[in-house]
Amino acid sequence: MPVIKTIHDDDITIALWLISEAENELLEHVGQVDDLPSNKNRRIERIATMALLKTLGFKQFYSYDSLGRPYFTASQVRISISHTDGVVALAFSESQEVGVDIEQTTRNYRKIAGKYLSTNEAIGSHNFSDFHYALIWSAKETIYKLPWGKSLVFNRDIEIDLKNFNSDRGWLKAMVFNDGAWVNVKLFYTFIDNYCLTWTGMNRIL
């Protein structure tokens, strides 16, 4: 299936691909691919990501650095990739590092809340809906994908301010503890059907 949604946010572009094709159909679209994962679901996600890149006009595949972040070896375009059941999300920018995440809102995030909610977030969680839990998890995944000076701990180093959360799309402030100090990052979100999509870039540090 072609791209189902494209979002342009200043110098960041986000594109979504709904995976409805069989593996052989995706391979027909992208051609020969080497070093694919052995797990079938991961393999299909990887090929679908390549199909999305090709549809957007990118003529090269991507690699991963030592921290697991995707990058182009022969281009200054920065990319970030996320998968959830049946959907690929891609963010790219020519001017800044980017992070993107997409999650299903139907997942039971309450079950793992202790692993990712900060102390302040947990205090207010009695008022949370499933959308709040999904949004906080997705936002922290997006923040984590940016190139910080250390590996961030979700429930200690990232805190999401939900004061601006009042609709199906908008922006939030994230607070990140990095290099001994807290910094604020402006992060954007939208809900699409049963999915929560979040994105940001290093130029969004306030």
Account of the 3D structure:
This protein starts with a strand and ends in a 5-residue tail after the last strand. A hairpin with a 2-residue loop joins strand 1 and strand 2. The strands form three sheets. Strands 7-11-10-9-8 form a five-stranded antiparallel β-sheet. It has a four-stranded antiparallel β-sheet with strand order 1-2-6-5. The chain folds into two domains: 3-101, Ribosomal Protein L22, Chain A, CATH 3.90.470; 102-201, 4'-phosphopantetheinyl transferase domain (Ribosomal Protein L22, Chain A, Alpha-Beta Complex), CATH 3.90.470. The chain is 25% helix and 35% strand. The protein has helices at residues 23-30, 40-55, 113-116, 119-123, 130-144, 154-157; strands at 3-9, 12-18, 63-64, 70-71, 78-84, 87-93, 98-104, 158-161, 169-178, 181-192, 195-201. The chain has six helices and eleven strands. It has 206 residues and is an alpha+beta fold. GO terms for molecular function: holo-[acyl-carrier-protein] synthase activity; magnesium ion binding. This is 4'-phosphopantetheinyl transferase superfamily protein. InterPro entries: 4-PPantetheinyl_Trfase_dom, 4-PPantetheinyl_Trfase_dom_sf.
Write the SSE topology:
Layout: E1 3-9, E2 12-18, H1 23-30, H2 40-55, E3 63-64, E4 70-71, E5 78-84, E6 87-93, E7 98-104, H3 113-116, H4 119-123, H5 130-144, H6 154-157, E8 158-161, E9 169-178, E10 181-192, E11 195-201
Antiparallel strand pairs: 1-2, 2-6, 3-4, 5-6, 7-11, 8-9, 9-10, 10-11
Helix pairs in contact: 1-2
